[in-house]
């Protein structure tokens, strides 16, 4: 039973940083790179690496635009990302209940 529950965990969310990123993005419509960096206390490189992995998995969408002359990149959770994150949290909850 425990083995089956462990199999339901989503490897994309095993990292504390990715779990944090998705937690923030599912409760906000979108956030800028700098806002995520400050909120989660991550370095530019660390945040960029984790965001790229989530984007490649189809869990995060990226919008690039210019505000005035400055580039502004914002991130949002995709529908697939929201569902995958919800499924992951449900699997965690079931795992804990069955310990």
TrEMBL record:
The UniProt entry, under Gene3D superfamilies, shows: Winged helix-like DNA-binding domain superfamily/Winged helix DNA-binding domain
One Pfam match: HTH_34
Lineage top rank: taxon: Bacteria
Q: Which GO terms describe its molecular function?
A: DNA-binding transcription factor activity
Query: Which stretches make up the HTH arsR-type domain?
Result: 8-90
Name-wise, this protein is Transcriptional regulator
């Amino acid at each position: 039973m425990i083995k089956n529950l462990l199999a339901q965990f989503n490897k994309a969310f095993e990292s504390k940083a990715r779990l944090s990123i998705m937690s923030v993005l599912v409760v906000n419509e979108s956030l800028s790179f700098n806002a995520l960096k400050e909120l989660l206390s991550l370095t530019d490189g660390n945040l960029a690496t984790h965001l790229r992995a989530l984007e490649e998995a189809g869990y995060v969408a990226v919008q690039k635009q210019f505000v005035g002359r400055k580039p502004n990149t914002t991130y949002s959770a995709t529908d697939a990302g929201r569902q995958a994150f919800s499924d992951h949290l449900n699997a965690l909850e079931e795992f804990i209940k069955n310990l």
